[in-house]
Design goal:
Helix content is about 75%, strand content about 0%. By secondary structure, the chain is mainly α. The termini are far apart.
């Protein structure tokens, strides 16, 4: 008789590896993380690990997806609110995700170097696709609400959401690279302010929103990362 999969138990066992990897990445860094360390941390066998993940890179992808899920869950109260305008929801989405990352700066820094590595292009592309699948429908609903309210002037909210996802991904990579330049003394905090202001202007123009209405990255976040 074929064995049946206990879906809940499978998810719990997989999450055990992901949670342990996130702890080790934060304390040691991704490059220093070894599968052997993870097995010691979880008390699992190598066979058990490879049952869930085919590589260390696949584990990193799972960790980043877990981080994304947690960040989106943190902003769900405002994005799902019935008494907020579309502009308030979009600003709340941006500020909420930024605040979540700010509170976990050490973890973000532990992932940053490897995230930008040319060796992880495939991981980044898979991650973007995964984020798009979760964030895209949310952005579409917010943009559609803004169109109905008259605060956004777009023809197709779903297509516009895809454009915004590309802009958000681009701004994240640009900000990450600028952060590394800042650490080397090759960039200033004013460079960061200019970068974020440019992306904010682009966002507002795409949505035809009032100028200055969509705070993309606030000054507190700029200070935390670039000050």
């Amino acid at each position: 008789m074929a064995r049946t999969l206990d879906v809940d138990a499978h998810a719990v066992r997989r999450d055990t590896f992901v949670e342990a990897a996130q702890r080790l990445i934060q304390t040691r860094g991704y490059e220093q993380l070894s599968i052997a360390d993870l097995l010691v941390e979880t008390g699992a066998s190598k066979g058990a690990f490879y049952h869930y993940f085919d590589s260390k890179e696949a584990l990193l992808e799972a960790v980043i997806e877990r981080i994304t899920d947690a960040a989106l869950a943190a902003v769900s109260p405002i994005t799902g609110a019935t008494d907020c305008t579309a502009i308030e929801k979009l600003v709340g989405l941006f500020s909420g995700i930024a605040g979540w990352k700010n509170a976990r700066k050490e973890l973000m820094l532990a992932i940053l170097d490897v995230w930008l590595s040319d060796d992880n292009i495939v991981v980044r592309e898979r991650f973007r696709s995964s984020v798009g699948g979760r964030l895209g429908p949310l952005l579409t609903r917010i943009i559609a609400q803004g169109k109905a309210e008259g605060s956004f002037d777009v023809d197709d909210p779903a297509t516009t959401a895809g454009v915004l996802l590309a802009l958000i991904a681009g701004s994240g990579e640009a900000a990450s690279r600028l952060f590394l330049e800042r650490q080397r003394g090759a960039a200033t905090i004013e460079d960061a302010r200019t970068l974020m202001a440019t992306y904010q202007q682009s966002l507002e123009r795409i949505l035809a929103a009032p100028r200055g209405s969509l705070t993309y990255i606030d000054e507190q976040t700029v200070q935390i990362w670039f000050g």
